C-alpha cells in the first residue's frame, strides 16, 4: 500500500506528534508498505529510513503553513492519505481538503484535545465535508479526545480511537533504582515546556508537596515557558531541589526514569500522554489528571493515582511520599503488565482497518 503521511510539524522539531508520525511511518515501512511523509517543517533528512517531502513555504519564523500538496498527490498517487492534526494545523487541514477534492481515501488523526476555540474552527471546516467525493475516517488517541471530536463531526465521518504506539522492548525493563540517602521521593516530569502542558501548575504542585513531605524533582524538556519556570524556581528558592535538564534524547530520558520514584503529568488537556506511558512502562507510578488521555492507560490505584483538581493531585503525591509500599506495589504491577493496545502490532492493525474503511467509503462515493 502507498501511504502518504501529512503533518504540519515533523522531526527535527521534537514533540509528541513528530515522534509518533516518524515511528508509525517506520513501522509501516518495516511491515512492507510504501511510505512517504510530507511536512511543512524544514530540516535535514540524510540517512532517514522513510522519504520526507518538505513542502516549506518561505514565511517568517518558519511557520508550518507549507506549499500545495497537489503535485505530490498527482506524482505519488497514494492509496491512502493519512493526515495528522493538532489543535491548529493549517497545512494538515489544507491536505484534507486537497485530498478530498482528488477523491482519495483519507484518515485524519487528531492528536490534541480540542478546546472551545478548536471546536468552533473545526465545526466550520467540517460543515462542507459531505460534499467531498473522498472517504474520510477520523481517529484520535484516547476516549477523552474523541468526545469533543464526535460532537463536531457528527454523522459526517466515523470517529475511532487508535492508541499511540510504543516499542515495549525500549521501555519495559526493571529500572536500576538509585539509592535515596536523603530519603526524598524523586518526582519526574517529561514534556515540552509550553503553556498547554501546564508547567507552572507542575511547579506549584511541587512547591505545595515539598512544604509537607521530603521530595526532589527533575523536569525534562524545553520550550517557551522555561525562562518563566526558572524565575519561579529562583523566587521561591526551589532551584536547589528542582532540576530543569532541558531537552534530552531517549537514552538519557530512560536514565532519568531509572532514578525516579513517581512520574507527574498535571496537564488537564493531555490528549494521550506518551511520556506518561513511557514512565508507566519503566515501572513508575503515574500521577495525572483523571479527565485526560492518560486515564486511558492508568487506572487510579493500579498504574498510578488520578485526580481532577490540583489539590487532589497534591494529595496523591503526598500519599505516595508517605507510603513507599504503595509506590513499590504499583511499580511492580506496571513492570509486569503490558498495555497491549499500545504495541505497534495492535496500532498497525487498527490503522489498517481504518484505511480499509476509508477506501470502501471512497469506492462507494464514486459509484
TrEMBL record:
InterPro entries linked: Glyco_trans_4-like_N (IPR028098), Glycosyltransferase_grp1 (IPR050194)
Enzyme class of the recorded protein, top EC level: transferase
The keyword Glycosyltransferase is annotated on this UniProt entry: yes
Single GO BP term: carbohydrate derivative biosynthetic process
Pfam families according to UniProt: Glyco_trans_1_4, Glyco_transf_4
Its EC number(s): 2.4.1.-
Domain Glycosyltransferase subfamily 4-like N-terminal: 15-169
Keyword Lipid metabolism set for record: no
Gene Ontology MF terms: hexosyltransferase activity
Keywords recorded for this protein, A-Z: Glycosyltransferase, Transferase
UniProt protein name: N-acetyl-alpha-D-glucosaminyl L-malate synthase
Organism: Actinomadura macrotermitis
Amino acid at each position: 500500500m502507498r501511504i502518504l503521511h501529512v503533518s504540519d510539524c515533523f522531526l527535527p522539531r521534537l514533540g509528541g506528534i513528530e515522534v509518533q508520525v516518524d515511528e508509525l511511518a517506520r513501522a509501516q515501512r518495516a511491515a512492507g508498505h510504501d511510505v512517504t511523509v510530507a511536512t511543512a517543517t524544514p530540516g535535514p533528512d540524510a540517512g532517514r529510513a522513510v522519504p520526507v517531502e518538505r513542502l516549506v513555504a518561505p514565511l517568517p519564523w518558519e511557520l508550518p503553513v507549507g506549499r500545495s500538496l497537489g503535485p505530490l498527490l498527482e506524482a505519488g498517487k497514494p492509496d491512502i492519505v493519512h493526515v495528522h492534526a493538532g489543535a491548529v494545523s493549517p497545512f494538515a487541514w489544507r491536505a484534507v481538503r486537497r485530498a478530498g477534492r482528488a477523491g482519495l481515501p483519507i484518515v485524519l488523526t487528531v492528536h490534541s484535545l480540542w478546546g472551545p476555540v478548536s471546536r468552533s474552527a473545526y465545526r466550520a471546516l467540517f460543515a462542507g465535508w459531505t460534499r467531498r467525493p473522498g472517504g474520510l475516517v477520523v481517529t484520535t488517541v484516547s476516549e477523552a479526545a474523541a468526545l469533543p471530536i464526535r460532537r463536531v463531526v457528527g454523522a459526517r465521518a466515523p470517529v475511532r480511537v487508535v492508541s499511540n504506539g510504543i516499542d515495549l522492548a525500549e521501555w519495559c525493563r526493571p529500572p536500576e533504582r538509585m539509592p535515596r540517602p536523603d530519603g526524598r521521593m524523586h518526582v519526574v516530569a517529561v514534556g515540552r515546556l509550553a503553556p498547554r502542558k501546564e508547567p507552572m501548575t507542575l511547579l506549584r504542585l511541587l512547591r505545595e508537596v515539598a512544604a509537607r513531605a521530603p521530595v526532589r524533582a527533575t523536569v525534562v524538556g524545553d520550550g517557551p515557558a522555561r525562562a518563566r519556570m526558572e524565575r519561579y524556581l529562583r523566587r521561591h528558592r526551589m532551584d536547589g531541589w528542582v532540576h530543569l535538564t532541558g531537552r534530552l534524547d531517549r537514552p538519557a530520558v530512560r536514565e532519568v526514569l531509572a532514578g525516579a520514584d513517581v512520574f507527574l503529568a498535571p496537564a488537564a488537556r493531555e490528549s494521550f500522554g506518551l511520556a506518561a506511558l513511557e514512565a508507566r512502562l519503566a515501572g513508575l507510578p503515574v500521577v495525572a489528571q483523571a479527565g485526560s488521555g492518560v486515564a486511558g492507560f492508568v487506572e487510579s490505584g493500579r498504574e498510578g493515582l488520578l485526580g481532577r483538581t490540583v489539590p487532589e493531585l497534591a494529595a496523591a503525591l503526598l500519599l505516595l511520599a508517605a507510603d513507599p509500599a504503595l509506590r513499590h506495589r504499583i511499580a511492580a504491577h506496571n513492570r509486569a503488565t503490558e498495555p497491549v493496545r499500545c504495541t505497534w502490532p495492535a496500532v498497525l492493525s487498527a490503522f489498517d482497518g481504518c484505511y480499509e474503511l476509508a477506501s470502501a467509503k471512497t469506492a462507494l462515493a464514486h459509484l
